[in-house]
Amino acid sequence: MKQHPQKKVRTDLNPSRLLTFKIDERDVSAHEDESILTVARQNGISIPTLCHLDGLSERGACRLCIIEVKGVAKLLPSCVTFPRQDMEVITNSERVVTYRKKILELLFTERNHVCSVCVSNGHCELQNLAVELGVTHVRYPYLYPRHAVDASHSRFSIDHNRCVLCLRCVRVCDEIEGAHTWDIMGRGITSQVITDLNQPWGTSETCTGCGKCVQVCPTGALSEKGKSVAEMIKRRQFLPYLQMMRGRQDDSWQK
Amino acid sequence: MTLNSEDLHQIAKIEKDKQDGFQHRIHVCVAAGCLSCGSGVLMDALGKEVNRRGLDNWCQIKGVGCLGLCAEGPLISLATSGTYYQGVKVSDVSDILDALGGNPVGRLLCPADTAFFKRQVRIVTENCGRIDPERIEEYIAESGYESLYLALTQMTPPEVIEQVTRSGLRGRGGAGYPTGLKWTTVSKAISSTKFIICNADEGDPGAFMDRSVLESDPHRVIEGMAIAGYATGASQGYIYVRAEYPLAVKRVRLALAQAERLGVLGNNIFNTHFNFTIKVRLGAGAFVCGEETALIASIEGRMGRPRPRPPFPAEFGLWEHPTLINNVETFANVPPIIRKGGKWFAGIGTEKSKGTKVFALAGKIVNTGLIEIPMGTPLRDIVFAIGGGIPGGKGFKAVQTGGPSGGCIPEQFLDMPVDYDSLLQVGSIMGSGGMIVMDETSCMVDVAKFFMEFCMSESCGKCAPCRVGTRQIYDILCRITGNQSTPEDLAMLEDLCDLMKNTSLCGLGQSAPNPVLTTLKYFRDEYLSHIHDRTCLAGACKTVVEVS
Amino acid sequence: MKEQVPNPGNTPPASSKPAEDHRLRMVNRTMQLYRNQSHALIETLHTVQESFGFLEEGVLKYVAATLRVPLSRVYAVATFYHSFTLKPPGEHTCVICRGTACYIGGSGEILDDIREKVGIVSGETTPDGQVSLLVARCLGSCGLAPAGVFDGEVTGKLSPEVVLEKIGRWQTHDPQ
Amino acid sequence: MAKIRLATTWLDGCSGCHMSFLDIDELLIGLAEKVEILFGPLVDYKEFPEHADVTLVEGAVSNEADKKNIVMIRARSGILVSFGDCAITANVPGMRNRYPVGEVMKRAYVENADSVPAGNGGVRSEAAGVAFQTVPPLCQKARPVHEFVPVDVFLPGCPPPPEAITFLLTELLAGRIPDMTGRTRFGA
Questions:
Q1: Superfamily assignment of C92-171 in CATH?
Q2: Is residue A146 within 8 angstroms of chain D, CB to CB?
């Protein structure tokens, strides 16, 4: 089973080294195979994320968790960056905070996030991030693409207008459920998540109807039919457990 | 079958004797450029006419790789007298054969004593236009596979790497990473399986160096890869080549078959314990696959989406094994380095950029084609002396290097020596070697828009800054060229470029703003006149009309 | 090998008629060359495209089942790479190069004219099924800019008039 | 102390934000002592004043009249507040932006029309639609206010909660530009 090369299987013969480094001037200690994001959160330091979800592989794609490391010119995604002894990490410099805001604004312009009519209103991670990062408006022009809603599945529906292409659904379906019903078609700005051969979800031959994709979706893109706004709370606590039980450590971190 | 040094020399001698047996040798360029203007038909006609005249043993007709001056194709050269003919048609065949041994045919003559030919220093392209790329014997006759033999039988892997390091060779794919250092990292990686990948996914629009090398001298690349395999401890290689280059694919496949048949690839090469085989993988039309992690994903049969580095492919590459990825031109430099020594190579070029570089000259320039020049040649010499200047008496405006990741270099830097560092200083990059010349009729905003459209449709869509950023920047450039812009657009353009540069996941996204940034820097007046005066200074944007 | 496609079974697509057998044989040959390993997907799709002219849905299902790649992954790869097309091509194909040299040389205007006068953009086929238009990133024929490929034949130094005339002749079945 | 001159207005909105404004209940009474309401749907003045210290704008810029008005309003306002999601994101009016204007008009006034104007022989057609002749033409897209004029304060929410409105006004009355970060969110 593939796993992120820097996350090793800890055994007596192959122990994980402990090291100390600094996050925002604070001394922290960590295993060498724990990502900076993990260590930061263990220490109560919050770093915003969108594509990351505990229990799924890392993609390093949304770029919201970027951090600065002293002596490194490039900004690094904390979810796939691993600590070194005496490294100095800064998670909240003005530089990264500004960039995070701008990236989030770009995500808002990409699809049609009309929050007031969204099933996830109040439980939406994209919305929460806007509050967290202090985004009160979006400076870039909205793109207003034309996207469809697929409600052909008997229990679920997908509204591509609200999709942020985090690919959590693709990963959970592949890594945890093992069905790989979801994937992403096209490239660039025309990318879109699909079921099977880009067919209506209801006609998918591979979907088991487990609904995990709905549970992991950060926005109102994937939702359960017949649920009201207030009921649209996601259950995800089972993910790390299932990841462990099914022996799939970071299977597709390079997707 | 295994080969030894004597066998190699024997093959070379037979081949040379054979060639010396001919009174005249006519080389017809059958690289893609000349083929597309009919050199294939021309070669057939020449062969038939020679046969009809019963001169088969007196005059040899041979298809060869690129002769360089693609604009004037089909090109042929008379190897015995050094005469070049350009724009040759089937109807010229009789005249050419009649003139052999006498005065050349004046109307077809291509002056060979010009700077275009004289200023070139040929290392990578030394065999281009001289040997038949479809015959391994001709490559061997030009000291081919001698370097591999030398490396395998007389050098240890560290010694091979030592020579490459000493040569100062840097990656010819764009970024200019020291090749020796890359090889060292792979050789030190602990793994029983390692891979060598040759990146021939030449995706830059306007670049055709790698294609020419593969079409003209495929064995050189194969030999370079085998030497790299020996030096780093790999026994399997892949050539990832664009499916859009059918001729290159065909010739590489042929060359691989010949090399295997002769035993310079396979098991126990030259009676040593070294085994090495190479497979061809076809690209499928994705520029981003030039990025090494995306290329690896593509060879593994997946979508070519880059992943964050580290870990680097040198430690964790193809199928999770240490993998060395170099560009076609980089590998093509290796055999002469081993043969003549790293010190010899380091004597060419500038302090930090050694050797030569192959450039594809195109755009508004007289001598469109392929050139190889020492690093550090001033840009002015490339454009005006070698390239022959701008056609039609128009004024020079800029040179674009590095493709969609590069920048536009204005007139004020024409005297700059062309090497990795000076290009970087003016905001461009060496890139793979495309060089597009623009004259006064080219609108620089339009050029920036062209490259941004390219990056937008080639963005893999994985990271948000590149996926959405390219589209937003493209929209702004469309507004500017389309008479819809506001003064605020300029600030937003710069803001988005900065965002993409600093937060994108891979090199494509990080460098995609370069064409916009350099044009903003050097041709800001053109942006301003579009925005404020609704005028295109170059007169290229038709939708921008003057407001009365 | 973790991916098992539950359905469809490992049988050739139902739509295959005897005439298509040869084409399927080519596809099978490629897959066997790689011992039906999943990483042969792209190479296999190249063969499908070559022998069928496009990626037919039934064949995609067959390839997915044989190589044990999920259906959605096959579709994802097929749409990620621009070399592949999911629609049958027209009778004739016109490829216009949009490399930098050709763009500087005016290939944009040629494409504009085709859009205006013939009514198709890249990737589309005329309603009569006669002409498909494709855009190449770079044909490498920069010396002949602007260049194009008409039914496999590279032609250089194009102008909008020459291209429109060629397309017009295809559409009116004028053999010249 | 001179009263603060307040104007409120709406472009393409549903008046929900103004309703939420009324929901600040008894605070309105205190507010009335400190501000002078010059213009708005809640009061009966016909002309936008020459100068307002603070203007709250509800709704997106959707038609040609909105486009003209917002420039005028900006010029005559000290502090311009984008009041609610429609002004900030185009929100509900923006839902039509995926479709061409013609398609939108046809859907609204022809396909979904439940009555046919008299004198048209019972035929539904675009020519018969009253809306086509009497209201200002729609822009291609409904867009946020800040894409047309500079905006000083953004107050998200659909509608913004009364508490956030109270905070905004309190801060403005104290002579500060309020920082709305974390006080309200899009859509809620």
A1: Glutaredoxin (3.40.30.10)
A2: yes
